[in-house]
Amino acid sequence: MIGYVLSGIAVLFLSVILLRAAFFRPKACPAVEAEHISFNKEASIEALQELVRCKTVSYNNKALEDDAEFEKLIRLLPTLYPRVFDICSLRQLPDRALLLRWPGKSDAAPSVMMAHYDVVPVEAEKWEKPPFAGVIEDGVLWGRGTLDTKVTFNGILSAANHLIGKGFVPENDIYFAFSGGEEVNGMGAVNIVNYFETHEIRPALVVDEGGAVVENVFPGVKKPCGLIGIGEKGMMNVCYSVQSGGGHASAPPVKTPITTLFEACRRVIKHPFPMHITKPAKEMFNTLARHSTFLYKVIFANMWCFKPVLDLICRMSGGEMNALVRTTTAFTMMEGSSARNVIPAEAKLISNMRLNPADTVSSAAAHLRRAVKNDDVKITVLESFEPSPISNTDCAAWDKVTAAVSETWPGCIVAPYLMVQCSDSRHYRDLSDRVYRFSAMDLTAEERKTIHGNNERIRLDCALRAVEFYIRLMGKC
Ligand SMILES: [Zn+2]
After folding, report:
1. In the Cβ-directed half-sphere of 327, how many Cα atoms lie within 13 Å?
2. From the CA of 452, how far away is ligand 1's center (Å)?
3. Active site residues
């Protein structure tokens, strides 16, 4: 009898799981009918080439920066985008911030298009083509910043130049907000946000760098996915330090600062932060898993019972999937004594943490102290900022961005996601709940690796789609 009841329960359980997976289908979305857009492609590629030729490299040590190159880029803008400068006023704020306002029919619901025009340094000898020459070969433009983010800087201004030329006036004001120090956490974006605050400008839509149109980001999904960040993780650097009386290494005590830190490190790794699937990850899984293979549909349609399985897979695999669902810890620096035969008077470890929106700087620090469980290890939070608020996906602003993505990349699956890196848009946290992080490009995994690396380059057709995306988006603002 008990056998029948148990097998009945098992059959019922299996049927529920399989039925839920079978009905876990892609959500119906209306067919996209996008009008064809023609604009001056040569001019916008030439403009991007000119931007790349400005060596706007930012450094933590300001003395290394070449002010003349930043000024050269700013001086070039009215020549590259003349119609923008006929209509929009340029305001230069401290820390190389540039703010332009394109007056719309109303100032009630302004949009903000963000990009940064500074770039990270290069190791030129490791490049196949010179990084600041603007070389075009076989339909590819080479250069530092082509992807990060001169392409969207150019996309925004080329799109506005085109629309203004056609006599288009946006329904609402559009601001172009550019920083020249994003790569070194400069204050440019903060100064722009402060300007908005003092002038009581409340953006109804903010678009900054972030996700892109990418492939192979979710197991079993073959189609390209347009990922739009609706939140970004927080960040904190943590120092673990241990002190001792030092001494000669020939007669060591049982414990030294190094062995204590080794144990602390092991304990932090053994106690990962709990999995917490926040709204961006949940919505991403709920969109993409519906396009995946049956196995993944079984898992993601039945999270009520497969959460521990997902947790295990993420913990074992690490990487991007794991970073989406929990706070991560990466040990990055260590420091001991200055001689091989001296026990250090103090040893230090540093970890870089990326905070899931479910955590805060203080809750994460408390987790680390509980994990280490040793008062000899002093745990200090160095730089930190909290995770961003999560943006709205049930509003006109979200619909405008997703429509512009679908129209520019027909057939791609548009999904929200959690950005695991940081962008300047985090400074808008108190100003708008409609902040979307999307770099308007279709990128291969190989191309993504060149960002901040060697041989950064962009396909010209990809750079032109960035312009097209902004023409479509601004047309709806
Ligand atoms: Zn960057």
Report:
1. 29
2. 6
3. 118, 182
- Is 445 strand, coil or helix? helix
CATH of residue 347's domain is 3.30.70.360
**pLDDT the model gives residue 280:** 95
CA of 199 to the centre of ligand 1 (A): 29
The sign of the torsion formed by the CA atoms of 388, 443, 415, 410 equals positive
pLDDT of residue 132: 97
**Residue 254 CB partners (closer than 8 Å, separation 6+):** none
Q: Is residue 5 part of a domain?
A: no
Instruction: State the CB neighbour count (10 A cutoff) for residue 42.
Output: 7
Q: Hunting for tokens 């799981």 — which residue is that?
A: 17
Q: Using one digit for the tens of pLDDT, what is the confidence trace for 97-110? A: 999 999 999 999 99
Residue 264 in contact with residue 329, Cβ under 8 Å?
no
C-alpha 447/C-alpha 442 separation (Å) is 9
The rounded distance, in Å, linking the Cα atoms of 422 and 427 is 10
Q: What is the whole-number distance in angstroms between the Cα of residue 206 and the centre of ligand 1?
A: 18
- What is the CA(186)–ligand 1 centre distance, in A? 12
Average pLDDT over residues 304-317: 89
Total domain count for the chain?
2
What is the 3-class SS of 36-101, one letter each residue?
Answer: CCCCCHHHHHHHHHHHHCCCCECCCCHHHCCHHHHHHHHHHHHHHCHHHHHHCEEEEECCCEEEEE
DSSP string, 180-210: S-GGGT-SHHHHHHHHHHHTT---SEEEEEE
User: Is the alpha carbon torsion for 265, 271, 277, 278 positive or negative?
Assistant: negative
Q: Residue 460: CA atoms inside 13 Å, Cβ hemisphere, count?
A: 16
Ligand 1 centroid–CA 182 distance in Å is 7
- CATH number for the domain spanning 133: value is 3.40.630.10
